[in-house]
Design goal:
This protein has a single domain, classed as Glycosyltransferase. It is about 50% helix and about 5% strand. It contains 13 helices and nine strands. A hairpin with a 2-residue loop joins strand 8 and strand 9.
Length: about 375
């Protein structure tokens, strides 16, 4: 499938996604798994393997998301799933070569598309990250394709001379409900692309320290990495991802971020709230506060909770045990691994949306060590 035909098929893929979301909201049951938090997560991860690739969830996200898979590729590898990680990547690379594009999603039939519509700045970085952390054996054909996509990526998103993000270039990223202007998350992912390209023997024209320096010089508030070039607001993915991906390795800055989270009670009653909710953003169509109230506000996201827990462990923070146990109790409360929950821990519902169950993100939790009593 060519890049053009892939774009033409996208509306049909998005329509399927929308129908699945509404159907899940009103008609699908929520399964409850037996066991403790780790046992629940083991069942969830096992269920997301469909024999060909890891799906994103056991609910309406029954297809492949490069972003979600990218965040768990290292953890899946660490818990003994390297062969399945490689099988997933082999399948994804085949579909991407057919489409001549690296999109954020691939449907079960192998059709590549972007959701919620715009092209994604982080699909290629997460792909290269996954290949690197799982030590995937790239072929010459793979490398030629990836180098070609890196050239397109740089031309589309980066300034020629500096390699910095282009101003006000709209694209899809992790917090896909809002429009950012050069987010810290996007900058961190570009930095990770630079690092992963070197690890894989690919060609990326800008050095990794360029993105680390930009983050420290223009995004660091003294307590956390601010959301984007326009606002000092806290958003979990922007605050944590530079550390999680190793673009920034600074204990003092990491500890300042963890202190801010504690002082602002963003881990209460469970880790981790998406944002401090101080500022408003421009929302994408049908993803604003009317259709999806508080979707990325002070709701608790299990994805970000696991980024947070991994970093607490990495930086040997004393609150790791307490936060791990709080999060484990949330999993056990629902007998599932929800996409997100309300600030009180109850399952998130919106008029046309229900938080998805059984997220593949559970692999991140399984990769965490159980705290000693």
């Amino acid at each position: 499938m060519s890049n053009l035909s892939s774009r033409l098929s996208t509306p049909f893929r998005l329509a399927r996604v929308a129908v699945r979301q509404v159907h899940a909201r009103y008609f699908d049951d929520l399964d409850r798994f037996n066991g403790n938090a780790r046992e629940v997560c083991e069942q969830v991860v096992a269920g997301t393997w469909n024999g060909t690739f890891f799906t994103t969830s056991l609910g309406h996200y029954d297809y492949f998301w490069m972003r979600d898979f990218g965040t768990v590729a290292g953890s899946l590898t660490a818990i003994g799933q390297r062969d399945k990680v490689h099988q997933t990547l082999r399948w994804a690379l085949k579909q991407y070569r057919k489409a001549d594009h690296v999109t954020i999603c691939i449907d079960p039939n192998g059709r590549a598309f972007n959701a919620p519509g715009r092209q994604s700045i982080d699909a290629l970085p997460w792909l290269t990250h996954s290949l690197a952390v799982s030590k995937y054996p790239l072929t010459k054909t793979d490398k030629a394709f990836l180098n070609r996509r890196i050239k397109v990526y740089c031309k589309k998103y980066l300034q020629v001379y500096s390699g910095h993000l282009k101003k006000r270039r709209l694209f899809n990223e992790l917090r896909d409900a809002v429009h950012y202007d050069r987010s810290a998350y996007a900058l961190a992912l570009t930095g990770r692309l630079s690092i992963a390209a070197r690890e894989l023997g690919l060609t990326f024209p800008y050095p990794p320290n360029r993105y680390a320096e930009e983050l420290v010089s223009h995004y660091w508030t003294g307590q956390y990495f601010r959301t984007d070039a326009e606002t000092d607001d806290f958003s979990a993915e922007c605050a944590l991802m530079p550390f999680f991906l190793g673009v920034i390795n600074n204990k003092e800055m990491a500890n300042a971020t963890f202190d801010y989270i504690l002082e602002s009670k963003l881990e209460t009653p469970y880790p981790l709230k998406y944002s401090n909710g101080k500022l408003k953003f421009r929302y994408r169509f049908m993803m604003g506060p009317i259709a999806m109230p508080n979707y990325t506000g002070d709701t608790i996201w299990t994805w970000h909770a696991t980024f947070y827990l991994h970093l607490l462990k990495q930086y040997k923070r004393p609150e790791y045990k307490v936060e791990y146990e709080k999060f484990a109790s949330l999993i056990e409360r629902h007998g599932n691994y929800p996409e997100l929950v309300n600030p009180d821990g109850s399952w998130y519902y919106a008029p046309f949306y229900r938080a998805d169950p059984g997220m593949v993100w559970a692999a991140l939790f399984l990769d965490l060590p159980t705290p000693k009593s």
